[in-house]
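Data deposition worksheet. Section B asks for the primary sequence of the deposited chain exactly as it was used as input, without tags or linkers unless they were present during the calculation. Section C holds the resulting structure in token form. Section D is free text for depositor observations; keep each observation to a single sentence. Incomplete worksheets are returned to the depositor.
Section A, Depositor: J.P.
Section B:
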Amino acid sequence: MDNSINVLYDHYKDTCSVQRKNLKVRNILFVVVIVVLGLLLLISYCPDTVGDAILSFLVHEYGINVRIQFGIMQSLIWVVLLYISVRYYQSTINIERTYKYIHKLEERLSFLVSNNDEERITIVIDRESGNYLEDYPVLSSIIDSMYKWVFPIIYIIAVAFKIIIERRCEFLYAFDIILFTIAIVLCVLYIFLTGKSSKNITRKLIRDDIYDGIFLIWNVFFH
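Section C:
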């Protein structure tokens, strides 16, 4: 086999391996965002309980034993939420871009391998592209939409609710308003960037599955 094909195939395997690691990181970040967002909401209703839990965690994990004013702790949670959210958005967008890159690698590999074959047999390498999307179930499409649309909308509603019920603390509240605004803007951009890239594919997959279902029902009852 041509050396260039070997190099490209090794690069393809490495890219797929990196993508699997990226998916694991994305999933962990998603859970962390949910936990931090939950803390941000809970601290408004039971500040003493949440505050004590956070301080106990800091003492146990990092040996930090210091009392933090409620307003400062609340703002720190906002900062942590914003940071983790940014990391999550970056990870998800990077995964989307990497999938597109993997699809291009598969197309290039298929072309090179087919042309290199002495019998000129068409060889298709499409594990992550055509083969993966061919029988893409409706449930997976719905889950994908929940990650890219439903969760961000819930996120926006949650942080908006939080900033409304937040205890006023003059300067710190103004600081939290700034963090809230940044969080909303980033979330909207995330919806736009991820939704735009997958909108056409998702619609097509759902439409094809609906057509298949109608065809199956027609065959069962009318043939």
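Section D:
The helical segments are 3-45, 47-62, 70-116, 130-134, 138-165, 171-222.
The radius of gyration is 24 Å.
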